[in-house]
Write a structure and sequence with these properties.
homodimer; 201 residues; mainly alpha; 74% helix; elongated; DNA-binding
DNA sequence: GTCTATACACCGATAGAC
DNA sequence: GTCTATCGGTGTATAGAC
């Protein structure tokens, strides 16, 4: 590790922290575990970042950014709103299933940030991001299907995030694939009920 | 603290732990903090309970039981399904708002249990409880309003829990009362769409 | 049975050798 | 600049005095 800029180390530490948290949980993500994952000596930690909490701020940003790139893949190709939503939610749950620890890490980070004065502003920003992301997906879907939403898109976006969060929490808890699929079914009905044919070009 | 049965101490410790977790978070709920809250010497801890994780098991049971008694108060008195659901969800969110730490404690405990081999079975049990509770409320509501649900009650119950979890997470993160109220509005529409007039007596 | 005093591991953070 | 070695503090858990 000779001559690596501080910013680069900082990014490497954030990535390593993300890996440790996804695999072993936030409580196990000690400075020692993080530098071990990154293959760095312990002292590099406080050389690159001022405190553990400060690094967790970077990790949240990293996780949110990744969620953003993953979201694009959930845009479905279907002919009805109900089917498109169902495909998107199913794709999302598959994503959770493929790496549950990573999704759980998001919740652990949010809860921890809410309890940490120095990080208490993060969760609001995090959810602002999710809501904006969901709004974008809803707009894109409406455009592709020539429909419009009967309530303001930001409101429907919040409902969509509400549903994905709740879906994820319950699935993490009981790993009941069949029940989750049925919830996706009824959730798709619920959201599709806010779709109507577009009247404006 | 002379001559208090072990079972009673155990219950007192669980209650104290619940208080500490709600106020300061799970990470702050050390054995020292818990016995201080309970007004006991440190050694009483391992006299009454074998380990901290074992006590957390009791705490989860306590929290779930309390959620059960609180749930009854959410049964609304309205004439339409939509209004009844809206009142119930609004009542639930008021409950969260009145003691956010307590609701956050539930999430923290679930996430921690998922990461702890000895407690990994708890979350499934916890959600089984929530789903049963929601089923009971839906049955009672249907009976009071002379309606029936167009999908199986357990499935609708899971959707209801999905919505309350998601609603709570987002509100904890951004404390946006107005946005949460709008989410309750659309969520009520969504659930009410599964109500229809009862055909059987 | 109950509590004081303490063992021992590990935490975040840093001083000081190279 | 980079790392080894270590500090002060706190965690869970217990030994041993009363």
């Amino acid at each position: 590790m000779t001559r690596i800029p501080a910013a680069e180390r900082r990014a490497a530490l954030a990535a390593a922290a993300r890996t440790v948290i996804a695999r072993d949980g936030l409580a196990a993500a000690t400075t020692r575990a993080i530098v071990a994952e990154a293959g760095m000596p312990l002292a590099s930690f406080h050389y690159a970042v001022s405190s553990r909490d400060e690094l967790l701020r970077d990790v949240v940003e990293l996780v949110v950014a990744d969620e953003g790139t993953a979201a694009a893949s959930f845009l479905a190709t279907a002919t009805t709103a109900r089917e498109a939503i169902k495909q998107a939610l199913t794709g999302y749950l598959d994503h959770v299933r493929s790496d549950p620890g990573n999704e759980q890490a998001m919740f652990e980070l949010t809860q921890y940030a809410l309890r940490t004065p120095h990080l208490a502003d993060l969760p609001a920003e995090q959810y602002r991001s999710y809501h904006a992301l969901a709004s974008g997906l809803l707009e894109a879907g409406a455009s592709a299907l020539s429909i419009e939403w009967s309530i303001p898109v930001p409101d429907l976006a919040r409902l969509l995030v509400t549903l994905t969060d709740g879906l994820t929490l319950a699935w993490l808890a009981d790993r009941d694939d069949a029940a989750a699929a049925r919830t996706i079914d009824s959730a798709s009905d619920a959201i599709a009920a806010f779709a109507r044919e577009a009247v404006t070009a």
